[in-house]
Structures are given as C-alpha cells and as structure tokens.
C-alpha cells in the first residue's frame, strides 16, 4: 500500500513539475483539464482549480477567470474535476442546469455553491443548455420535451388546457385557479401548464375575481372562513 501511495505522489509531483510558466507572473490554463489552471509567481507555478461547475477562461481580463462552461471555449481541454453535486437539481455545485425530468424543458435551476434556485422560461421558450438562456424550441433543440399538460398535483389538480385572458384580452402567463373546498388556498399554472399549489397569508382568502388573495369581506362565499378562529380568540 505504501508503494502505491508513493507512486501516485511521485506521478503527481512529476505532472506538477512538468508545467512551465509561459511568463514570470500570471494565470495560465492546464493543457488537459478545463477547470484547472496555474498561478505563476516569479516563474513558480501553483496549481489551482475552479469551483465545481465552472471552468478557466484565460481570455478574461479579471483576477477571477473562472466562468460558466457555455461562455468558455475549452478546445481540447476536455477533462474536469469530479462532480460535487448536492442534489438532482444541482449535479455540480455551480452552474445552470436543466430540470431532471427531460420532459420539462421550460424549468431550469441556477446553482450557487450547491444551493438551487428554480427558474422558468416564459412564453413557451425552452432552456437552452448550450447557452444557459431561454430560447425558442427549435433553437434550444431539446429532445423529449412534453407539454406538461398531463402533470397532476397529489390532490388531482391539473392545469386546464384552455388559456386564460385578462380583461384586455391578453393571455395570462401564470393563471390562478380557486381551490374547490379551501378558501385560503388556490392553484397557479406556470406558463399555463405546470401546476403548483398556492397558499394565502393568514387572514386572507383567494378572490377569483381579482386573481389574488384578498380580505374575506370582498369574497362573499368566503366571508366567514376565519369565523371559528375569531371566536376561539375571543373566548
């Protein structure tokens, strides 16, 4: 075992020693691994590596030269460090990633140090993995995208196929729908097709007429929704 460790250590030392600084000072890319680089000081190279998910761009005129892969031409530098992903939404700790369900092309995730933030492409656009932006479906070129029209919540709610329009006749991008039995809850459909459950703040009920949470006095059928709670507080 000691012999194996020694061989590996020697191989690493040799590989490290093989890098020759092109200039006395500066940061320079590794010839093989795109997220590895070397920082040279007085001709002495120190090996560095970008945060997981980012790669080194020698053309950047900033001290921090690590950037998103879709912004960098790695050329033949195809190797990368082992992924350090924290969830199915963040396969690497940093970057922009598609929804893990290949049929959902309008939702993607921005990951920063392993923390994901869900984001949505509007107006029928798809997330383009090549550019990290939203694009028309034919440009994004995603395969297997579904309409999400068959997606269903655990209580059975599905987004209606018919689009909703406002009083001016404009299509509502993320329409809301009332809950059939709970005045404080409602549903909303991301891009009209992805169902989500909504909850009004305490003391408010959903008002279908204005498509938002409102005071119970403005929603006749829900005016007594919190009556039992008020009675409990007075006794």
From TrEMBL:
GO terms for molecular function: chitin binding. The keyword Signal applies. Keywords: Chitin-binding, Disulfide bond, Glycoprotein, Repeat, Signal. Residues 1-17 form the signal peptide. One of its GO terms (cellular component) is extracellular region. Gene3D superfamilies: Chitin binding domain. InterPro entries: Chitin-bd_dom (IPR002557), Chitin-bd_dom_sf (IPR036508), Chitin_bind-dev_reg (IPR051940). SMART domains: ChtBD2. PANTHER family: CHITIN BINDING PERITROPHIN-A, LD43683P-RELATED. This is Chitin-binding type-2 domain-containing protein. It comes from Culex quinquefasciatus (Southern house mosquito). The lineage of its organism: Eukaryota, Metazoa, Ecdysozoa, Arthropoda, Hexapoda. The gene is 6031440.
């Amino acid at each position: 075992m000691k012999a194996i460790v020694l061989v590996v250590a020697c191989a690493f030392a040799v590989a490290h020693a093989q890098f020759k600084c092109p200039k006395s000072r500066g940061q320079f890319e590794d010839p093989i691994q795109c997220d590895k680089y070397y920082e040279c000081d007085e001709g002495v190279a120190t090996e560095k590596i970008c945060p997981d998910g980012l790669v080194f761009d020698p053309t950047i005129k900033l001290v921090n030269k690590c950037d998103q892969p879709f912004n960098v031409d790695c050329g033949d530098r195809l190797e990368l460090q082992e992924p350090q992903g924290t969830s199915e939404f963040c396969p690497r700790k940093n970057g922009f990633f598609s929804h893990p369900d290949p049929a959902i092309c309008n939702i993607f995730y921005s990951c920063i140090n392993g923390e994901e933030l869900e984001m949505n492409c509007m107006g029928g656009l798809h997330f383009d993995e090549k550019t990290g932006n939203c694009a028309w479906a034919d440009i994004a070129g995603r395969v297997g995208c579904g309409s999400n029209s068959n997606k269903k919540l655990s209580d059975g709610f599905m987004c209606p196929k018919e689009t909703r329009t406002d009083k001016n006749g404009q299509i509502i991008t993320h329409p809301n729908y009332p809950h059939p039995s709970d005045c404080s809850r409602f549903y909303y459909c991301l891009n009209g097709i992805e169902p989500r459950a909504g909850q009004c703040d305490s003391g408010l009920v959903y008002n279908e007429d204005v498509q938002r949470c409102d005071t119970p006095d403005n929603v006749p059928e829900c005016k007594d929704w919190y009556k039992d709670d008020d009675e409990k507080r007075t006794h």
